[in-house]
Amino acid sequence: MKRRLLTGNGAAAWGARLANVDYVPAFPITPQTEIIETLGSWIDSKEMAGRMVTLESEHSMVTAAGAAAATGVRVFTATSSQGLLYAMEMLYTVAGWRAPFVMVNVSRGLSAPITLEPDHNDILAARDSGFLQIHAATCQEVLDSVLMAYRLSEDARVRLPVIVNLDGFYLSFTREPVEVPKEDKVLSFLPPFDPENIRFRASTPISQAVAVLGGGPYSYFRYETHLAALNALSVFDEISVEFGRFFGRSFDAVEAYRTEDAEFVFVMMGSFATKAKEATDRLREAGWLVGLVRPKLFRPFPKEHFLKLLKGKKGIAVIDQNISMGKGGVLYTELASVLYGSLDDGPVMASFIGGLGGRDISSEEFFEIAKVIRRAAEEGKAPPPRLLYTEEELREMRKLQVIANAERNQAGKRVGKKDE
Amino acid sequence: MATLKQLAEKEELFTGGHRLCAGCGIPQIIRLILRSVGENCSVVGTTATGCLEVGTSIYPYSSWRIPWIHSAFENASATMTGIEAAYNALKRKGKIAKDKEIKFLAMGGDGGTYDIGFQALSGALERGQDFVYLCYDNGAYMNTGIQRSSATPFGSATTTSPAGSAIPGKTQWRKDLTRIVAAHNIPYAAQASAHNWKDLQRKAERAFAVKGPAFLNVVSPCPLGWYSKPELSMETAKLAVETCYWPIYEIDEGVLKVNYKPKEKKPIEEWLKLQGRFKHLFKEENKGLLKEFQDRIDLEWARLLDLDGKHI
């Protein structure tokens, strides 16, 4: 097995290449572009057999991806942030078609204010679309997730599109050593797409994606999609065992790090969870019994995995890299709904929001979070949600505002002079 | 070129029993176009959200005897892009015979084509997708209950441009989409009318025959939105052409040809008076608008005749 130094984007491209995709509808957006540039160059040099077409928008891109998958070929596409939201109507639509394909999303905070750096509000906006979601934390996981995603998506018990999420900049542009599996091995793990009953063939009349009248038929199709998504839980576990057998590394739905004897657990998604991992080690050195739980699979939500891992813990700190305006952290809410009533003497939960627009979460902050959750467990009372932001940051922000005001006043004066 | 009898003998690919209104121009446009796909060719279709889609595909029934998919309102062109790409991939891999002739047909109303679907259409034309785009132009968002679109005629009353005391219906001229499409330098673009089956059929055959994008813009009477008599639909469509409101012409490999020049151009009132949406234009205080309408048609028609037979 070869190890190459790859960026997260490069690893995503390798995933698509090894999956031997037939069609790549594309549209550029920072920080995703490197993926489609890489695939474009491979197709151009005949290292890859598929075809890539640059559409005129992400809306058309996801449309074309779904339409091609519904016709029975293997499709890959990628986007980010604003692009994902621009395509949102079609995310719901092609999931309703039960079109199996894989899309990589390179997470980036949403406008306004517009930014390039990551958080998870883009990907979580797709939470209810019917796309399944795998969240990667390392470049290796990005490649592995793409291969897993094709197996999951094309499985006849599932037949739903899958998004593989990686964080912009932190993963997309960071180089890590990645084991790139051999083509023949991938071919055994992931054979060519067999569309089976997915048929949209000329000379065979069939009407797809038709309208329904009334709530009965509508509910039927929506429930079917939901049940298919739930099927993906056991199918994922099945494929994950196979993955381990083929490639010698595990790919579990939920990663548990030093949780066995832990009293307190951090819960996080994506690459920022590696910061929590580092903090866990430091806290352990300082004598704290802490651990980390990180869902890779977010849709379907791996409820049973969480219950098993969090049973008997004293406190849980969910650190959300997203914010639902007027509510708070999305992962916190999801986990709370799973734990409520499911565990006797359940752990105290605390909600933290951080890492928005790529803001760092420092080691000190993880120590502070640990303190808060320990105190909460001692008092048996959940603390109010916390938005991670330091006094220093606020001071810096105030400085920027002073400059902005001064600039505005200067500009106003210049305009005023002209008027005179 | 098939005779009407020969056409009638062809297999019906669009069945009756659909839910389109009496007097609607769409079904006969579709039936004729599906009959114009060459012999031994298969056709694959997609329809933008709208009357045609809702009227033909309520589960578990379908009027389509072809592989057909509905996508969304604005993306019939992108849907066909994906399907065409998939067929090409299947051919490359030998899963479909390489020489199998498959035609791709995207369909949409004027709202889904002139307005919300314009970006996807323009993209597909620029990419040179090998497909036929059919716009059935009934001049407003009829499926949602007659709202103005950029294809709505000047002066027309719609529910979002009602004729009242402040504003006399739509105040803007319609978008000249056929010419805009032709400006993409595609092999074939044409304007046709539901009443002239011979012209429409020839154009559809040509559209399917060319390699690359082809565009058909067909005026389609809508008794519901035009406030016209269902039994006069074809007559109404004919008058749209006879008055030169809707000239029928084509741009084939860059050369414009006016396919029908009325011996005597009828005054626009002839067309307007059959339709309740223009009723207010006949009021004394709106006389100026009628003249404005006629002057604009005269100008557009003269411009078109200037281009007749020329490379544009």
What does this entry look like structurally?
The complex is a heterodimer of chains A (420) and B (312). A 6-stranded mixed β-sheet of chain A has the order 10-12-11-14-15-16, sandwiched between helices. The mean pLDDT of chain A is 96. With 420 residues, chain A is α/β, with parallel strands linked by helices. Chain A folds into 3 domains: 2-247, 3-Layer(aba) Sandwich (Rossmann fold), CATH 3.40.50; 254-389, Rossmann fold; 391-420. Chain A has helices at 8-18, 33-44, 58-71, 81-86, 88-96, 121-125, 139-154, 183-189, 215-247, 273-285, 303-310, 330-339, 363-379, 391-419; strands spanning 2-6, 23-26, 51-54, 76-79, 102-107, 132-135, 162-167, 176-180, 206-208, 254-257, 264-267, 290-295, 297-299, 315-320, 348-353, 386-387. With 312 residues, chain B is of the alpha/beta class. Chain B has one domain (4-307): 3-Layer(aba) Sandwich (Rossmann fold), CATH 3.40.50.970. Helices cover 37% and strands 14% of the residues of chain B. Chain B has helices at residues 4-9, 26-35, 51-56, 76-92, 110-115, 118-127, 177-182, 197-209, 223-226, 233-242, 268-272, 287-307, and strands spanning 42-47, 67-70, 102-109, 132-137, 188-193, 214-219, 249-252, 255-258. Chain B has an 8-stranded mixed β-sheet with strand order 2-1-3-4-6-5-7-8, with helices on both faces. Chain B starts with a helix and ends in a 5-residue tail after the last helix. Chain A binds chain B through residues 22-23, 25, 49-51, 53, 55-57, 59-61, 63-73, 89-90, 93, 200-213, 217, and chain B through 42-44, 46, 53-54, 57-59, 62, 64-72, 74-75, 77-83, 85-90, 92-93, 96, 100, 102, 119-120, 122-123, 126-127. Strand 9 of chain A pairs parallel with strand 2 of chain B, so a sheet runs across the interface.
